Amino acid sequence: MDFTLSPELATYVNELRSWSKQVGRLHARESDTNHALPKNANKLLATCPVPLSGDVLAGNEFPNFPDGAGIRGVVWHQSIAFGDIWLFEALARGLSHHVVRAIGTPEQIARWYDPIIEYGTCTAFGMSEPGAGSDTSRIATTATRNGDRWVINGTKMFCSLGAIAEYVLVFALTNRQVGRDSIRAFVVPRDWPGITVVKAAEDKLGFRSWLTTQLTFEDCAVPEDHMLGWSAGSGVEDAPNGLDAGLAGLNNNRPNVSAMGVGIAEAALDETRGEIRSRRLGFTPQRLRFIEDELERMQKTLDRCTVVNMWAQSVRDDLNVDNRREASLAKALGPPNADRVIRRCMQLLGPDGASENLLLEKWYRDIKILDIFEGTGQVLRTVVSRQLFGSRRGA
Fold this sequence. Notes:
With about 400 residues, the protein is an alpha+beta fold. The protein has 14 helices and 7 strands. The strands form 2 sheets. It has a 4-stranded antiparallel beta sheet with strand order 2-3-7-6, with no helix packed on it. Strands 1-4-5 form a 3-stranded mixed beta sheet. The longest helix has about 35 residues, at about 240-280. The model has no long low-confidence stretch (mean pLDDT about 90).
């Protein structure tokens, strides 16, 4: 597969990276300190010289782009992250509506997917719990049948966009004895009786501007048609397994998450190069040449990660092939390498590298979560090994 960008896409990427660097980094420290988006975030987004909407990824606004959807998605995520991660939060719309499209009935898609796309609102993903992070089989939230309703009880945490979303997609057990195989996905509007926002914005090491919410569900009763895949006259056993659908949604986005990590690391390299140039008179020629060679090697490492990300996403988006192994490999490769690149950049700049005078220490905190959410590196390496040895189990 050829991953060389077309001239049209290359031009778009250059403009997007230039803008994200100027605007994103200017407000990066503010968003990190305040644990929130810049107050004028929408006005800042409006200054972008190229379109920022999701139609860019779908190719609707750029019919002349010959590049595949997988390549477009990867370079878009990488280019936005080259500025700062708060830009993603300002553009975020969530994943849950994509799960609705994947396993919902035609009526549910028209009700909970089409309006999100039409009006650009967002959805929340309610999978992680206090006792269930990577081990999704430990989900304890329950949905109990009561007549024509499902009564949900439990707690969700680190629920992206949970405090502002149109609805939360809640993954819950319908039968404790059956366990994992009884997990189904339920659409719960954010203002529904029985749902409580415990903490709108949870405290985190990095990604501080990224809104993650803790929610509780106490006797939260939703109509039976709020179970995804449910249709009149069917039983719970006929509805698709919600956990499998949720994990598939995460899998589809893993190369893009890896691309975000690569973009952050490229930002660190960019900042480090600028600092080294401003200090070049303080280095011997030999030392300067050594540093420049090391920076170039780090860039080549990130370039290899980019190719893997493009390959993994293109397998699904352009070849329509199950990419569980490829997506897992991409995400298991990108964030750890990005982590090492940022850490080394900090070391090269000495005390300034770890100070708040530069953004490197912020990006080093940000990069940590990218190796954890949507599948930890350890879990994904297990998935890859199982795929290689013929097992279909795994996230």
